[in-house]
Write a structure and sequence with these properties.
Length: 125
């Protein structure tokens, strides 16, 4: 049986789109901006990415309204952003990462980027 838009979510056992939140941030430019990001990404489940829309902070944290069966406990009142998410071509079909220009999952990855971007990163003031 072929997967259709109506049935696709029932095949998506990890309910991928309900496992994280994102927040767009101002594009970091100065060392001080990246210092704040390093502090943030030093915490568990915090990541950053940049895509064609800009920079985003991401928290890997499942929605508490997600039911064990994969359903939404507040389906009729779910937020607009959930309502508007189109499953025609979604993360079940292709990972969002494919559109990331930059992706930092760990403190060390971001620190390595900072050292490349700012030649004097390790120099004390
Ligand atoms: S919209 Fe896509 S990613 Fe979200 S639960 Fe359905 S199939 Fe999975
Ligand atoms: S409110 Fe429902 S649809 Fe929205 S992220 Fe949570 S479980 Fe998913």
């Amino acid at each position: 049986m072929s997967i259709t838009a109506e049935t696709k979510c029932s095949y998506c056992f990890k309910t991928i789109c309900c496992q994280y939140i994102t927040q767009q941030i101002d594009s970091p430019k100065k060392k001080a901006d990246f210092q704040v990001m390093l502090w943030q990404i030093a915490h568990a489940n915090v990541e950053f990415y940049k895509d064609e829309d800009g920079w985003f902070l991401m928290f890997i944290t499942p929605c508490e309204q997600l039911e064990a069966t994969g359903g939404c406990a507040i389906y009729n009142q779910r937020p607009d952003i959930c309502r508007e998410y189109d499953n025609d071509y979604c993360e079940y079909d292709a990972s969002a990462e494919e559109n990331f220009e930059l992706y930092f999952k760990t403190y060390d990855e971001l620190l390595s980027y900072c050292r490349k971007r700012f030649k004097k990163w390790d120099k004390k003031k």
